[in-house]
Amino acid sequence: MRVSVSWLREYVDLPADLPAEDLEQALVDLGIEVDAVTDLRASVTGALVVGEVLEIEELTGFKKPIRFCRVDVGAANGTGEPQEIVCGARNFAVGDRVVVILPGGVLPGGFAIGARKTYGRNSHGMICSAQELGLGDDHAGIIVLPEASAAKPGDDARGVVGLDDVIVELEITPDRGYALSVRGIARELGHALGVPFRDPGRSPAPGATAEPAYPVELRDTVGCDRFAARMVRGCDPAAPTPEWMRRRLTIAGIRTISLPVDITNYVMLELGQPMHAFDAERISGPLVVRRAQAGEKLTTLDGVTRVLAAEDMVICDDTGPISLAAVMGGETSEVVATTTEVLFEAAHWDPVMVGRTARRHKLFSEAAKRWERGVDPALPLVAVERAVRLLTEHGGGTAGEQILDLDHVRPRTPVSIPADLPGRRVGVAYSPERVVALLEQVGCHVTRGAGRLGEDPGDAGVPAIGGADVLSVVPPSWRPDLTDPADLVEEVVRLDGYDRVPSVLPTAPPGRGLTWQQRRHRAVARSLAERGYVEVLAHPFVAGELADLLGLPADDPRRAAVRVANPLSEEEPLLRTTLLGPLLGILKRNIGRGQRDVALYEIGAVFHPRPGVGAPPTMGVDRRPTDAEFAAADAVVPDQPRHAAVVLTGDVDPAGWWGGGRAAGWADAVQAGRAVLAAADIPADRVQVRAAEYAPWHPGRCAELLVDGVVVGHAGELHPAVLAALELPRRSSAMELDLDALPAAPVVTAPTISGFPPALIDVALVLDEGVPAAEVQRALVEGAGELLEDVRLFDVYASEQLGAGRRSLAYKLTFRAADRTLTVEEAVAARDAAVARAAELFGATLRGA
After folding, report:
1. pLDDT, tens digit (0-9, with 9 covering 90-100), for 231-277
2. Domains of the chain: which residue ranges?
3. CA of 128: how far to CAs of 57, 513, 794, in Å?
């Protein structure tokens, strides 16, 4: 919203010497975001004066028409002699008064003006257009001052063209639609500065007459609860829009079209009431305001033929829809260059309907922007009267005596609020008198009482304290956002000053800190991040064909997915049952954007439908659900266990001048699973890793992770068919683990640190290559007994000497006793027991034995 301060001064008595900084701060203090405050006088420096064209010489022989002009600029040039200026514009003649910038001046954008030779003549200055002065986009011709202008040659032109003004550019939040008007901003400034405000929305306007201005049938009083209209006959179709109106519209960013249309836009900016002007001679028969019929078509003013939906509101005549109500008019009834009979319409439309219509048709007009934020239903007659007066004043014609006003607006519902509620919520001692005064300043009608709150829906269950006054507040018609006590509290605080609210940190309630599940989730995330994985947050929505792309068997429970009733995209209507689908999609996107070495992780919920549940119960919003209704609704909610998953591809260790790198593989995915379990405080002796076959992993390179014998996750290399279907690199690996399936971490006793030296013994066992190394390690632990402190696999070896299908696994065993130094015999005996157990279970033999 861009508006000039001179326009605001018509309705609020701003101090004459009000600095721009104070103006900006006053609006900011009221919660209105100020994008910029621009002093137009400073936008053009140097001598900008009024000039009178004395002579025009047409220069020929050039690619475009050029004119050499002699312009009287009075004494502004220091000599009093006519100024010689070369100009290419054609829209002025001898005797016209124009705007001239003399050498040494600087136009907006830093464009310096000097004296130079051009087109064979010396040019001293420039005759300016509106675009060159930053007043608009019109560059077709220069500014020609009206004949009625009292400006004389040599006078400063800034005040003549509006460059003596200050422009305020505001960003209006959706809840403050009333501020999208001069009326609303002027009211706010009146509050902020404590100066008188004259409300143009309360201007006297004649009411409805027995005979309507035009026959109108209002069929839907929900979509349109008020419709007003009045006729102007015999207006001059060639009457120009006054310069002051054009200037204000241009500053607001609205293109001028014709006098009747410009008046509707001007009234919209001034009052906040969008309007429409019909050419009455192009309307066929009575008007009907109704919902559109699905499939009806309307060609709007932008020349686009639109297919209407049943929710859209339209204004129709005998030919069908002629206007998409509250959004944009139609071509068949628009005001044209020959229009002499103008029917002004001002109505009040349902904000929800307008917002949906605008989005459905992608028509975000200035009118729709105001309607969906809320417009004062008391304005239609005032707006019609204002528009009629402007048209008859500047375009001639006669205002019709008949006035139409179909009024079905319901009165506002009072909101009950304890007088002490603002103080309790904010921490500032507002007296009841102060609360009442501030609410009345907003425009509310306040009635004071005493005792407890009644059953009014506006009570919101907020009791009065100690028999405090209870205020019954009727919000003003222009504030549809004031619907409950919290809104009124905000208004009290806003008008009294946010700066009065103390900056005090609230006292933290007593508690036990994070739960053990929260601590576990944070530890898992930190562990994966420290290992080089990057966290991502994927949308939980997936496509129906994802299960096929992942190669899930027909009976896999992960195929049963919950369908979202109102999905963001029909292409992804299901909730994920595994983290891998969205995570692999993010991996593909990163690879497509040039990343080659990628390691990602996510911790999030998956969704499994509960078997045998029906449809959720239907509940209204007029009351709190009963316990039975809540239980029935909760029974339909899907199970949502939290999973952790990683995907990785490319190199784990990059190659370079220091040597070859190492590609990521299935072992890294398995190790990520181990890291998650370790971060979850699951002891290593309770964790088991063994080979498995589970989609979407490669059947020969997939491991399942078990805790206490229960499978909690899978890891390994993804199946080649899955990688091909998803267009991912070969050897890409992944891990997914159910965090909610993990048992609570046991109470860990502090380890006993022995001060005695360890005994280090290496053993290399030869056995079949199909035996998992983790199973061999488990056998060594079982056999070695309590003297074994640590065991670690440090080498895997295969050769022809060992035989086909055989390999050597080398482990480093650490033995230590807590109370003595082990003898060689004790350490060797423990080693032999460990090897014997491996031999018993897997037929292992010591290499070289």
Report:
1. 999 999 999 999 889 889 988 888 889 999 999 999 999 999 999 99
2. 2-41+167-198, 45-162, 216-407, 416-499, 516-611+629-741, 759-846
3. 18, 70, 85
